TrEMBL record, chain A:
Heterododecamer (2C3:3R2) of six catalytic PyrB chains organized as two trimers (C3), and six regulatory PyrI chains organized as three dimers (R2). The lineage of its organism: Bacteria, Bacillati, Actinomycetota, Actinomycetes, Glycomycetales. InterPro entries: Asp/Orn_carbamoyltranf_P-bd, Asp/Orn_carbamoylTrfase, Asp/Orn_carbamoylTrfase_sf, Asp_carbamoyltransf, Asp_carbamoyltransf_Asp/Orn-bd. This is Aspartate carbamoyltransferase. The keyword Transferase applies. The gene is pyrB. It catalyses: carbamoyl phosphate + L-aspartate = N-carbamoyl-L-aspartate + phosphate + H(+). GO terms for biological process: 'de novo' pyrimidine nucleobase biosynthetic process; 'de novo' UMP biosynthetic process; amino acid metabolic process.
UniProtKB/TrEMBL annotation, chain C:
Pfam families: DHOase (PF12890). One of its GO terms (biological process) is 'de novo' UMP biosynthetic process. Its EC number is 3.5.2.3. This is Dihydroorotase. Keywords: Hydrolase, Metal-binding, Pyrimidine biosynthesis, Zinc. Pathway: Pyrimidine metabolism; UMP biosynthesis via de novo pathway; (S)-dihydroorotate from bicarbonate: step 3/3. It comes from Glycomyces paridis.
Length: 306, 192, 431
């Protein structure tokens, strides 16, 4: 594993290894006098964020620092998409600065893959356009492992704007690879065309899809999508695809409610549901740090980097 | 992604046997006695094995101390993977668990236990790992085999056997817990 | 000018003959000897009418860092072309007599291929007001074909008016069929691959809807419509039905749509980004069949050179388009059955005679018969070549075929009897 671009690149064994190491990272740091490990001392991790995402950037930064890496936050307010420095020139700059790993968040799908052509260091995709967000999927799988005892054989409903969701895509590949039954639920306008080949069940009726689900993953839906006719109104969306208390009661007792954040309370998820003990939303944030530690460790100690 | 380093070492069994099972048993008896003697009855003492085979050795020493002196010296595990100085160069290593006896290492006499003492780098890593977990009162080192070629100013407090070796030789410690039998085997190296 | 004797060529696969070129025209064919003439040994080679491209972006004026008329026509000659139609999306846009005359003059000065400018349908390609179509038609460039290529003439009223207007002088509108609302932000073919890659999809229906509408407008106005770069199987169906009813429509297909598919986008390498996008295997198969059958009238390159910075970037930031002139012949041969199976006469029909007829280039697309202008291409059907971007004559390097080995090489190209390419090498001084 040289880079982490998407979960589709991982074999099942590799994915399991990441989750195992995630557990080990959590155990290694939790309750210690010095919550810091020296594994990546002297290595430089660059956070290259072309989209504002304080939560993801902070999570990667914390993970890298817990492993004693030097972290550089490269301010990339503009990209070649909006006439700033070209991604290639930025990559050459980071290369010249000796970055061992670059964590990239970019509005253009495929930007991390392009970056691997211009850089020697490891590239970690922290979200590219509507393509992939592998560490989010890994932390979701890890959360299920912790809360449900595993992923294999569990049924997971992913609900909402699948079309524009990199989280949904990366989760579909990862969870199905780990043996889960994945259901995609949303209005037909927000499901991609031609996904008959995906290893999922597709549904348009949320109530029906919640029955027997072990986990339900609510995706953020932007209100502005109503302007592009993806759905008539925010109210109608919430009525058809929002997770409220009535729907929560349709889930089995052990089922968990997940959300990658940031949430639109009252839109895809009711405030009372988001705050219920069955919601794993803050736990997901905590687990994100362990997953990112595991990924950084695995990528930077594989004997392939400089 | 799973590298060969993660798999079990499978050395050539035709190597030269340096120690047999009963030799190892006698050596551990002696070290257990030495620990009791040198620590004056081992108060506030714990044994921390360094994975993989140090863990089994620490357990065996704790058993012997219990048998010889009716004393419970707790044994635990100290994983040093993340503290190694060759992470950058060598293929991926899986992390092992670190399991400390209840109460942690603060103000304890910690005896690190490993199978082979060679360059001293492992012990260096273990000391760093230990000090990120707390502040022991003192640290000692118990070792089954010292094969020389130190690269750091480190020596063991308890040594099972000194075995002079060439750098291109390999000392393999076999323990029943992992290998089904006890032995120390010398392999590789040029004809002597 | 010295006479040229092409010795022993296979004329369009019909049989061996010698061809004598004198004063830019073909003087004689048969078994000939011509003392004093320059002899081109064509043993084992096939002689074709010079290729004609209905769809070339020469980038001059405005983007001379990507291509110029000089470099673009050299690339054309290298690819076996003797005439190219230059698309209107230059800077400034070719929407006035002045710009089209300038482009035609640059073509004459370069001398490697005839450059026939295409005029814009609307001012600035903005789709709002008609450009001065009449002025361009009556200019020295004698523009007959009009296109907003790169943009669809979306407004049905504007399209209707343009058709009524060009009809008066036998002109035609070449439509870039793309319903703009259905392709907002689109990056690649909409389908299984775009769903996985998370790239916004360009649905086939966006092309088909405009083609269907324009077929109806062509029938209603009685004017000629030509469809640029047809890329989907359903488009072929619509055009086939239209032709069966007698509608005055023609269609072109690009080499890349005859060979490549949307699977290429998995690399996220924008060298595969093109508009309309690469489609599915099934579309490629239908387009090949339609080209052989004649539902698709012609191969057109949509040669679209881009400067490195416009391709060495994120997929979404990259400009669409790929080089085509130097590879089109090889890929046309592949699409029509390969070098041993291809019907050379059919190849000439689709790459030379029909495009020349559509564009109104009477001196091109003529079989090598006495009296015809000597616009000819001599190809080696047994040879193959590997595409090396740095070796291309185009100023740009954005070929999707880098590293591929393709059949058939161009040995010589003659423009009015002058060799623009000889022994597979571009002539530095044309004589």
């Amino acid at each position: 594993m040289r880079h982490l671009l998407d979960t589709s690149d991982l074999s099942r064994e590799e994915a399991e290894l990441v989750l195992d190491v995630t557990q080990q990272m959590a155990d290694a740091v939790t309750g210690r006098e010095v919550p810091k490990l020296p594994a990546l001392r002297g290595r430089t991790v660059v956070n290259l964020f072309y989209e504002d995402s304080t939560r993801t950037r902070t999570s990667f930064e914390t993970a890298a620092k817990r492993l004693s890496a030097d972290v550089v936050n490269f301010a990339a307010k503009t990209s070649s998409v909006n006439k700033g420095e070209s991604l290639r020139d930025t990559a050459l700059t980071l290369q010249a600065m000796g970055a061992d790993a670059v964590v990239i968040r970019h509005p253009a799908a495929g930007a991390p893959q392009r970056l691997t052509e211009w850089l020697d260091g490891a590239v970690l995709n922290a979200g590219d356009g509507t393509h992939a967000h592998p560490t989010q999927a890994l932390l979701d799988a890890y959360t299920m492992r912790r809360r449900l005892g595993g992923v294999e054989g569990r049924t997971v409903a992913i609900v909402g704007d699948i079309l524009h969701s990199r989280v949904a895509r990366s989760n579909v590949w990862l969870l199905s690879k780990l043996g889960a039954n994945v259901r995609l639920v949303g209005p037909p306008t927000l499901l991609p065309k031609d996904i008959d080949g995906w290893p999922v069940e597709i549904g348009y009726d949320l109530d029906a899809s919640l029955k027997g689900a072990d986990a339900v993953m609510m995706l953020r839906v932007q209100r502005e999508r109503q302007n592009a006719a993806f759905f008539p109104t925010a109210n109608e969306y919430a009525r058809l695809y929002g997770l409220d208390e009535r729907r929560l009661a349709l889930l089995p007792d052990h089922a968990i409610v997940m959300h990658p954040g940031p949430m639109n309370r009252g839109m895809e998820i009711a405030a009372t549901v988001a705050d219920s003990p069955r919601a794993t939303i803050t736990e997901q944030v905590t687990n994100g740090v362990w997953v990112r530690m595991a990924v950084l460790y695995l990528l930077l100690t594989n004997g392939e980097t400089r | 992604m799973v590298s060969p380093a993660l798999r079990q070492n499978e050395e050539d069994p035709s190597g030269k046997h340096i120690l047999a099972a009963d030799d190892i048993g006698r050596i551990l008896d002696r070290i257990a006695h030495q620990i009791l003697e040198k620590t004056k009855g081992a108060p506030d003492t714990m044994l921390l094995g360094i994975p993989t085979r140090g863990v089994a050795l620490a357990g065996r020493l704790a058993d012997r101390i219990r048998r010889f002196a009716d004393l419970d010296v707790p044994a635990g595990t100290l994983d040093i993977t993340l503290y190694r100085d060759d992470l950058r160069r060598n293929a991926l290593r899986a992390l092992g668990p670190t399991e400390l006896p209840p109460g942690g290492v603060d103000d304890q006499r910690v005896i690190l236990v490993d199978d082979v003492l060679y360059s001293g780098r492992t012990v260096r890593a273990a000391l760093n790992a230990l000090y990120d977990l707390g502040r022991p009162a003192s640290v000692q080192l118990a070792i089954l085999v010292d094969r020389g070629h130190r690269e750091l100013p480190i020596r063991a407090d308890y040594v099972g056997k000194n075995i002079p070796t060439a750098r291109d030789e390999n000392v393999a410690v076999r323990l029943t817990e992992y290998d089904g039998f006890d032995a120390v085997v010398l392999t590789g190296g040029r004809e002597r | 000018m010295t006479d040229t004797l092409i010795k022993g060529a296979d004329l369009l696969g019909r049989g061996r003959a010698d061809v004598l070129i004198r004063d830019g025209r073909i003087a004689e064919t048969g078994s000939l000897s011509a003392p004093g003439a320059r002899v081109v040994d064509a043993d084992g080679l096939v002689l074709l009418p010079g290729l004609v491209d209905l769809h070339t972006h020469l980038r001059e004026p405005g983007r001379e860092d990507a291509e110029t008329v000089y470099t673009g026509t050299r690339a054309a000659a290298k690819g076996g072309y003797t005439a190219v139609c230059a698309m209107a999306n230059s800077y400034p846009v070719a929407d006035t007599a002045g710009v089209v005359e300038q482009v035609a003059a640059l073509g004459r000065a370069a001398g490697y291929a005839d450059v026939q400018p295409i005029g814009a349908v609307s001012v600035g390609l903005e789709g709002k007001r008609l450009a001065e179509i009449g002025a361009m038609a009556h200019s020295a460039a004698a523009v007959r074909m009009f296109s907003d290529d790169g943009h669809c003439v979306w407004d049905p009223v504007l399209m209707r008016r343009a058709l009524e207007y060009v009809k008066t002088f036998g002109g035609l509108v070449a439509q870039h069929a793309e319903e703009p609302r259905l392709t907002e932000g689109a990056q690649m073919n909409e389908g299984a691959v775009s769903a996985e890659l998370g790239l916004p999809g360009w649905p086939a229906v966006a092309e088909e809807a405009i083609i269907a509408r324009d077929v109806l407008l062509a029938e209603y106005t009685g004017a000629r419509v030509h469809f640029c770069h047809v890329s989907t199987a359903r488009s072929v169906d619509i055009i086939r039905e239209a032709k069966a009813r007698g509608a005055n429509v023609t269609a072109e297909v690009c080499p890349h749509h005859l060979l490549l598919t949307d699977e290429s986008a998995r690399t996220y390498d924008p060298v595969y980004k093109v508009n309309p996008p690469l489609r599915r295997d099934a579309d490629v198969a239908v387009l090949r069949a339609a080209l052989a059958e004649g539902v698709i009238d012609a191969v057109a390159t949509d040669h679209a050179p881009h400067a490195p910075q416009d391709k060495d970037c994120e997929w979404a930031a990259a400009r669409p388009g790929m080089l085509g002139l130097e590879t089109a012949l090889s890929i046309s041969v592949l699409a029509l059955g390969g070098p041993t199976e291809v019907d050379w006469d059919l190849l000439a029909e689709r790459t030379s005679r029909t495009p020349a007829r559509i564009a109104g280039l009477d001196a091109h697309g003529r079989d090598p018969e006495p009296g015809a202008e000597a616009n000819l291409t001599l190809v080696d059907p047994a040879a193959s070549w590997t595409v090396v971007p740095a070796d291309l004559a185009s100023l740009s390097r954005n070929t999707p075929y880098a590293g591929m080995t393709l059949p058939v090489t161009v040995q010589a190209t003659f423009l009015r009897g002058r060799a623009t390419v000889l022994n597979g090498t571009i002539a530095e001084e044309i004589q």
